[in-house]
Amino acid sequence: MNHSDPLAHADFFRQRFAFGHLVGAEIASETGVFHVVALDTTHHKLFCSCPFFPKPCAHALALATLFQREGTSIFPETSAPPAWLDSLLSGRSAGIARTGIDPEKRAAQQQKTRFERLERARNGFDDLEAWLSDTVRRGLATVVSEEPAAFEQLAARAADASMTGLSRNLRLLSNIPPNTPDWTTQVTDALAQVYLSVRAFRKRDLLPEALLYDLQNFIGISIKKEEVLASGERVHDTWAVLGALTEPLEDKLSVRRTWMLGAQSGHMALLLDFAFGGGGFAPGFVPGSIHQGTLVFYPSAFLQRALVQEDFQMIAKKVEKMPGFPDADSFLKSYADALATQPWLPHFAGAVLDMQVHPEKNGRFFATDISGKIFPLTVPENTGWSLVALCSGYPIHIFGEWNGREFRPLSAVGNGRVVAF
């Protein structure tokens, strides 16, 4: 154990106690909540209620280091252990209890912190607005032809202003070949979202709190998991895993998106996992599986991203049918409504029922709904042919992501079975 662990100090662990062969404590956080941690000194087992992986986490290891260094002298013996101890040891969620901080003071502090984070991006927004105005005046093609590294330079300035999300989006624009047929559409759409963030920042005092979170997330100011767990909306439901997709974001960074649908709530939930460098992803959820438990949603004007709680358990059932939209028009209308609510929505997922998939001569594929409306698909060729084969002349239900231009199938139900792509 590392005796120099900066967390292994009594000040970090409050409400310490010893109960038989167990020692434990609470861990305070700036969000006004606490996690709980315990050590079984006989069996050398560590327990912690925090959401961080892998286990044992840094909190539990620090408690073990503190105990090894100080012994029981700083862990007062108690005859009545805290109520959370039994739940923690049995693997059930010990809960995240609120401290005695006044809720109004806590909310005010969180809002103050959020505004301070946004204020640090002020210079970046000033640069963006000036560059966008100049680009519109001169013309997008002219700016890029005269300054081939324009996007990289702007991305660097955004990164300097603590706008990491915006910086990544701008860098990715430079990867789109200018001879791409829809280059103008892709770049203009992306810059329109950037300009919308500029205008939203100028009106930040008038924005609803949920939309402020969306603005903060779009520019790359992340919200801590502890804050989400403390104040996020909790939904207990039976969740069907409808699809998952892993793709690179940029050099040495990959993302996995997993989509779940709540049977009773109708909530579509998105789980995001990231892998850096050569490290792989932790085991994920298998499309077609069904789970029961609680998800906590990140604050947003359009609730989507969520965190899994400890009560999540897989049940002995598989997805056999797929609720969804009756046709492409209803799917697109729902997407438009979502976009009106949260204008920086990067992905929208859902199933469209009774679709048939057809190949094109150029190696691409498209789908038609029950009314014959064409739905453009973006799929690898082998996935496209798998969809054609699954149809076998009959309509199938297809679940996927819509990015505003094309639909990317992630799974489908045909002949009573789910096929994941």
H-E string = EEEEHHEHHHHHHHHEEEEEEHEEEHEEE
State the separation between the terminal residues, measured CA to CA.
Answer: 44 Å
Strand content: 25-35%
Give the low-pLDDT segments: 95-101
Q: Which structural category do the helix and sheet elements fall into?
A: alpha+beta
How large, in whole angstroms, is the Cα Rg? 25 Å
Whole-number total of structural domains = 4
Report the sheet with the most strands, covering strand number, pairing sense and barrel closure. 6 strands, antiparallel
Number of E-type strands: 17
Question: Mean pLDDT, rounded to whole units?
Answer: 85
Helix content: 25-40%
Outline, from the CA principal axes? globular
Top keywords for this entry?
12 helices, 4 domains, 17 strands, 421 residues, OB fold (Dihydrolipoamide Acetyltransferase, E2P), alpha+beta, 6-stranded antiparallel sheet
Walk me through this protein's architecture.
It contains twelve helices and 17 strands. With 421 residues, the chain is an alpha+beta fold. It has four domains: 13-98, no CATH class; 102-222, no CATH class; 231-318, OB fold (Dihydrolipoamide Acetyltransferase, E2P) (Beta Barrel); 328-420, OB fold (Dihydrolipoamide Acetyltransferase, E2P), CATH 2.40.50. The strands form three sheets. Strands 6, 7, 8, 9, 10 and 11 form a six-stranded antiparallel β-sheet that branches. A six-stranded antiparallel β-sheet has the order 14-13-12-15-16-17. A hairpin with a 2-residue loop joins strand 16 (407-414) and strand 17 (417-420). Helix 4 packs across helix 8 (183-202) and helix 7 (164-173) runs antiparallel to helix 8. The longest helix has 20 residues, at 183-202. The radius of gyration is 25 Å and the shape is globular.
